[in-house]
Queue: 4 jobs
Job 1
Amino acid sequence: MNGEYQENVDDLSLYDTIHMGFALSAIMVHGIGWIVSGTIQSKQPFFQYVYRKLSRYSVESMNIKQIRKLTGAKRPMPNAMIHLGSSSVFYSKVRRYGERIGSTRGYWVHEVEGRQPNDPVIVYFHGGGFYAPALAAHFDILLALAANLNVSIVFVDYSLVPHACYPQPIRDSAEIYAELEKMGCSNIILVGDSAGGNLCMALMNGIHYGFPESFRAPSLHVRPKAFLCVSPWLNLHATKTGSYVENNSKDLFSIEILNHWGSLYCSQPPDKETTWVSPATGSTDYWKPALPPGLIIYGPLEIMADEIKEFANRLEIPLFEEKGAPHDYILIDFQLRSTENKKLEQPAFKKMMQYLQSVL
């Protein structure tokens, strides 16, 4: 299955197809109401309000196979990368886009011409609840980083649930990292959003402490130079407290949906409480020696906001709060900005660029 989304083995049943048709029809009908109410309400920017309503209704009314169908999970790599990235205004500025790294599930977004072993390489882990593939927005952001920083970037096409659950995505990530080590890469920066941020933490965990034997993951030796996480998913067994309650109606999904996705990735309660699955459970003494310098970007309207802030503050990781943003808002906001200059001014992306420039 290497090189393709594991979900290629899935096809929608007749029931799923009919149900998805009804769900999409309902979204169109509800959309009119969201547009009207979004125009009247004043608590959130119009588009952010409509986007939140659309996202929430979609994840609550469709199953993961239906959502993957909508997001194009059946396209094999690198065809998916080319399909999703070729419309970006930054596409023409990169080199070796979509080329596979050895026999792993890693692909170049850009490799700097004449790259030397000690030149920086960004390794990127996309979000999507461990079940959804990368979106066009992910590649738009990565292409913009590559074009404007002229830095080599690797995209991690890790396996998705339900066909590949914990710890397979961690093993996929470790195999890509090991291949980069074999190539002599010694200056690596890890970047991830949402579930991808969770995988960033798992990889740094394994690099410092070694992976459990049951993971069947290669040993890694090169400590990352830095990391950057956007809205990292740090706890897969969350409880209804704090921002999980206060932001329940403000974010893109509910705690019930979040915990459902978490159970699809890791179904065993004891495993969910480990640092491999829920980094927030790790003590300060545990994580301090394992983490290089880093930055976390988040939105105050996320249901995970309190957990992200608590984790970052006790580990003294710098935080950037994107004002008024729900979970992982950079994705949709960046892609819908119409010009290159407007994209580069997106607040979270601008901070991402500044931070990466400081560590490259």
Note: Strands lie at 106-110, 121-125, 152-156, 188-193, 226-230, 294-298, 319-321.
Job 2
Amino acid sequence: MTIFNNIGERYDIFVDWDRRLSTEIPFLHKVLRSRNAKKILDVGCATGKHAIELAKLGYDMHGIDISDNLIQKAKRNAQEARTYIDFEAMSMLDITKHKAKLFDAVLMLGNVVSLLDDEKQVLSFFADAKSVLKIGGILVIQTLNYRKMIKNGERYELIETPEPNLIFLKIFDLVGENTRLSIVMLERNNSWEMSEMSQHLMIMTKEDLVRHASRTKFSSISLYGKFDGSPFKGEESDQILAVFEK
């Protein structure tokens, strides 16, 4: 279970969805439309915001997340948005249970790939994702560019929420060759109270992603550094956006 399960109902306050969706959905729509994709699996879908926006654009969306708390919130969000999406509480390592359905695209957004424990699990996920894709289907992965963060010493991110009595602080610490994400939540009732959660994250580089895609024999790879479609530029890009075609 991830630390985001503990945030629960506050997850949609923790994430700046207006900012993210305004840049991420146009990119995803363009990539999916260029492949004539219709049936999409969102892995690590959290509260379902990406899936809901893509469903509004006409895609047949399915979403899984290991957190039952987040899946229940996703179902409520979909109901409020008047969209039907097949949301299910499931580990990303169990996606072969969907093998009979076959998808045009598998999405893994929001740094979810770094939640896998080790390279063996990452390789297994790549193989499983390929097995649930139709021929010509795509796997889209987005993760933070840790090399840029390490180079620039980007350890802290303060998140001020729309609620004046709730603040989050994200802290990244290097632990060996990986990192630990700590989330500090400050909440004021009569006085300020603090709680802290932490999660091990794998550092995934461009080379790591390309290597796993090559080992699982994806036929082509496209790399981007931002959701505006600009190319990936080593330690300059904030993110690694990779599109792998079966």
Note: The first helix runs from residue 4 to 7.
Job 3
Amino acid sequence: MINTQPTSLKVKVGNSAEINFPHNKEFPRGRRHFISIVILVAVMVFLGFVWVNPLATKARTIGVLRYIEELKQVETGFYQGMENLGYKDGENIRYLITPYGESPQRMQALAQELVDQDVDLIVAITNVAASGAKKATEASGRTDIPIIFAYANTPDVTGLVKSFASSGNNLTGVAVNLVELTAKKLEFLKRISPSLKRVGILDADFTDPAGKFAQNELQKVAPQFGVEIVSYKVVNDIGPKAMAEIATLTEKIKPGDVDAFFYLPGPVSNPPQNAQLVIDMTRRLKISAVFLLHSQVERGGLFAYAHDMVVVGKQTATFVDKVLRGNRPSNIPVEFPEKNTLVINLSTARAIEITIPESLLNIADIKIGQ
């Protein structure tokens, strides 16, 4: 007698539970075809899940290319953002972290080390780091390695990308909005010191075009606030010579020469010791000043208005996630940071005998020395 009771056909997809399908050679042909299609679809869904879900694959290696320690909070936000997205260091993600390059000339060499390690992706913090990574991947014929930049000044102006809509290459990421920040900083300076007429700046021969871009933007908006920009020339923009020049300049500036100081971005501004010379000068002259970073305000600067670096880092993580899921960098538009932060040092305000308007205190995100 032929056994017509159905037997069980077991199909196991990946690590999921077994799926039992009744099977019998006397089943109608249409039913058998239907079961075959169901099995095929299940397998395809699983394979598709593996393809688009980086969390289901082997650990990816991310190179983190760092420029200056002053932007450490961007790194902090990035690692937090990656963890929030489900990436666990040592499990499904691995980080190769470079030392701080500290000079534009060193960044390409550090980036080349990451390329030689065959990383899956490079996160480059600042446009200086991104430029080094771009040059390294191009020189090595490895433009297949995606580069996600964070806190990059005007990437379209500096040549990192063709446009914000589409980079046209292997880069994308989070940019710095210098136009918005420059005008807003000058507005805040004017609100703190309504009578100010002369605003001093360090005028360097910037190897980073973003510094010159910010300077040009400041010159453009200054007449709207009735102020004159006073430039103090720095021939060298990095190294001990730059520091020596800044030390000499800040010592020579006398009371009445300027009413406030505007600390511009660029390599000359990055070293903490250079920023400290300007901080000390503004406190000696008892004038208001706007700085680039939260850390500079913590060390005695009056205030800073800048993109929230932790938020920038978390935003950068979303770009990395998109690329690891199969999206091309050129198809992911460049974004500006989602949040700006106003930091005011009230201890400094008291020391230089300046009263911060209530309107600014009400919108300040961080108040130091309350």
Note: Residues 1-27, 43-52 have pLDDT under 50 and may be disordered.
Job 4
Amino acid sequence: MARRSDHTREELTAIVIDIAELIVASDGLAGLSARKVATEAGYTVGTLYLIFKNIDGLITEVNLKTLKQLEGEISQALQGISKPEKAIAMIARTYLNYATTRSKRWRAVFDHQLPADDVFPEHYHQQVAQLFSLIESPLKLLRPDESQAAIIREARAIWASVHGLAMLSVGEKLNPADAEPIEILDLILNRIIGFDPQGGRK
């Protein structure tokens, strides 16, 4: 392993983010602290704050990696799918699967609250917009006569519905005896876009 003095600023930044990412995946956002990250990296907390102005900056970068990973998995799942309604269904299912299988990382994105005097960096907003564009693209094909504003609203409505289901699933607020999350998801998609899991779109 390289000595501490051998790490460039860029290398140390990557190391710190990777360590924080592992902690969040294992212990959740509540388990993350600057001291724990610094100790794992072999540096002082002061050195950590030479890279990030506060712990929120580090959490933002960890959450950004989560969003990029989610985008990558959705893009992979969409390969070979041409029908827009099936693409939307696959996006929703991939999102639900990610939330339930990597719940601590996923929840950290939404549990993290910036201080009132702080804002997310532009590249974070761009990543969020990129994720929404994955839903908007097939919606445009499905609703060719709709305005861009209407497409954006419907994309947000779909996300809000799927996200709410994911929150209930992760929080174990659903009774499996009533319906499995995937069954509820298919019902949501049927109501919004007419998706039929047995045959595409009605």
Note: The longest helix spans residues 55-78.
